[in-house]
């Protein structure tokens, strides 16, 4: 109750003093009095100021007289200010710590924002690339449909005009060129796929904090791989279907010997035996004769007559029957006859390649060195004129089991061995190349002059 009365009293006194000050200022201003040589206007302002100061002083004196606690607080403010300053310093220290933590949090937030922006940019680029690849796939599929339509037309022409084989072969070569173009497009798409996979790997390394977006990219990648795989399967099946014979595949190889004064019938019989071998090989691979023809292989009459005339010349001839084009199962295969002089390339016992195998090597290292010797022999044989397989580029075969046995023998050796690849028989142009490994100790370690031979059929 005392506080309420004090407030009412202060309000009353302040209002009374304000009224008195206003009236005094008004009268002074009206009378245009001057104090201290001031202008009347400035004198009125001074009176108003004195009145305001009187109000504040009277109010403060009244409060100090009527409220002892206020007077104590007013005259003991120094200690209170010191305590407040200590509290303020403590608060400032806490504020500094909070500001440091806030700066760290802001830096981390900025880093996360940068990572998020980078991810969004990369995601946008990846989506753009995916859209481009899909468009290219659509164009490639349309081109594949056009190629299929052309293939259908070519097949119809082959069915109706079988005797005109030369014209059909020319058309097939055009289709092959188109298929090769489609393969190049597939290779280009594969390169784009690998580029996308590299982009995806880079995104996986930088997007640890955004796994949800990564899962979306994985789904898009999987879908793209499925589309590319489907397109690859369609392109492979384009015109090829189920291949039985590849272009350039050797169906038969033989030797025709025509001594001086030999009967033409003998040469023709040897040539027909080689053609019969090619016929059997074509049938075994899935080729079938096309009615009304009786043979699975087709050779032009002019080519057969020219080959026979060449074989009637005196000498020994290596003859190969080679397919002209890729053929599906159930189709006849056109062939050509290749004739080479059958000359001796290497006499029996010729060293085609050699090297020293050190002890202590593991199995893979020994195999690598032995395969290097075989490759040297293969390359040298081809350079000397030995006929090689047009598809594989090899001039012979060897037993894998026997090869592994030789590797085991070399692993068990405790001394360096000089390994030579020598011919088992006289090698002619027609082949095949038959060699064996000859192993003996090197000159520095040799105590037994008997070499060890390992044959490779």
Automatic annotation (TrEMBL):
<feature type="transmembrane region" description="Helical">
    <location>
        <begin position="6"/>
        <end position="24"/>
    </location>
</feature>
<keyword id="KW-1133">Transmembrane helix</keyword>
<keyword id="KW-0175">Coiled coil</keyword>
<dbReference type="Pfam" id="PF11283">
    <property type="entry name" value="DUF3084"/>
</dbReference>
<feature type="coiled-coil region">
    <location>
        <begin position="67"/>
        <end position="241"/>
    </location>
</feature>
<protein>
    <submittedName>
        <fullName>DUF3084 domain-containing protein</fullName>
    </submittedName>
</protein>
<dbReference type="InterPro" id="IPR021435">
    <property type="entry name" value="DUF3084"/>
</dbReference>
<keyword id="KW-0812">Transmembrane</keyword>
<keyword id="KW-0472">Membrane</keyword>
<feature type="transmembrane region" description="Helical">
    <location>
        <begin position="45"/>
        <end position="66"/>
    </location>
</feature>
């Amino acid at each position: 109750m005392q506080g309420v009365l004090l407030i009412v009293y202060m309000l009353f006194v302040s209002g009374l003093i304000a009224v008195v000050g206003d009236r005094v200022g008004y009268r002074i201003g009206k009378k245009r009095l001057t104090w201290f040589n001031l202008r009347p206007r400035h004198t009125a302002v001074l009176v108003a100021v004195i009145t305001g100061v009187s109000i504040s002083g009277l109010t403060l004196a009244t409060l100090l007289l009527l409220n002892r606690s206020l007077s104590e607080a007013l005259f003991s403010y120094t200690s209170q200010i010191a305590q407040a300053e200590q509290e303020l310093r403590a608060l400032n220290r806490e504020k500094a710590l909070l500001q440091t933590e806030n700066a760290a949090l802001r830096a981390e937030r900025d880093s996360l924002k940068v990572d998020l922006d980078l991810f969004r940019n990369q995601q946008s680029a990846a989506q753009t690339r995916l859209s481009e690849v899909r468009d290219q796939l659509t164009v490639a599929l349309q081109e594949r449909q056009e190629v299929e339509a052309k293939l259908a037309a070519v097949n119809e022409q082959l069915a109706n005009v079988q005797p005109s084989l030369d014209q059909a072969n020319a058309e097939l070569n055009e289709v092959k060129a188109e298929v090769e173009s489609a393969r190049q497009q597939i290779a280009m798409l594969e390169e784009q796929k690998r580029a996308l996979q590299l982009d995806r790997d880079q995104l996986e390394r930088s997007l640890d904090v955004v796994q949800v977006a990564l899962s979306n990219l994985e789904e898009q990648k999987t879908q793209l791989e499925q589309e590319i795989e489907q397109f690859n399967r369609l392109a492979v099946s384009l015109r090829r279907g189920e291949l039985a014979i590849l272009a350039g595949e050797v169906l038969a190889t033989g030797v025709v010997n025509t001594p001086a004064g030999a009967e033409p019938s003998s040469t023709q019989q040897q040539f027909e035996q080689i053609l019969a071998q090619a016929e059997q090989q074509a049938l075994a691979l899935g080729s079938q004769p096309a009615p009304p023809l009786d043979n699975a292989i087709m050779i032009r009459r002019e080519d057969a007559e020219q080959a026979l005339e060449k074989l009637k010349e005196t000498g020994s001839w290596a003859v190969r029957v080679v397919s002209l084009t890729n053929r599906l199962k159930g189709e006849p295969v056109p062939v050509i006859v290749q004739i080479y002089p059958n000359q001796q390339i290497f006499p029996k016992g010729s060293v085609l390649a050699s090297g020293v195998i050190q002890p202590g090597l593991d199995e893979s290292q020994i195999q690598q060195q032995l395969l290097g010797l075989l490759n040297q022999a293969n390359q040298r044989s081809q350079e000397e004129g030995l006929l090689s397989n047009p598809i594989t580029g090899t001039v012979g075969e060897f037993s894998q089991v026997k090869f592994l046995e030789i590797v085991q023998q070399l692993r068990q050796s405790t001394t360096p061995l000089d390994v030579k690849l020598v011919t088992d028989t006289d090698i002619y142009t027609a082949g095949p190349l038959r060699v064996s490994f000859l192993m003996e100790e090197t000159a520095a370690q040799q105590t037994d002059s008997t070499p060890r031979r390992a044959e490779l059929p």
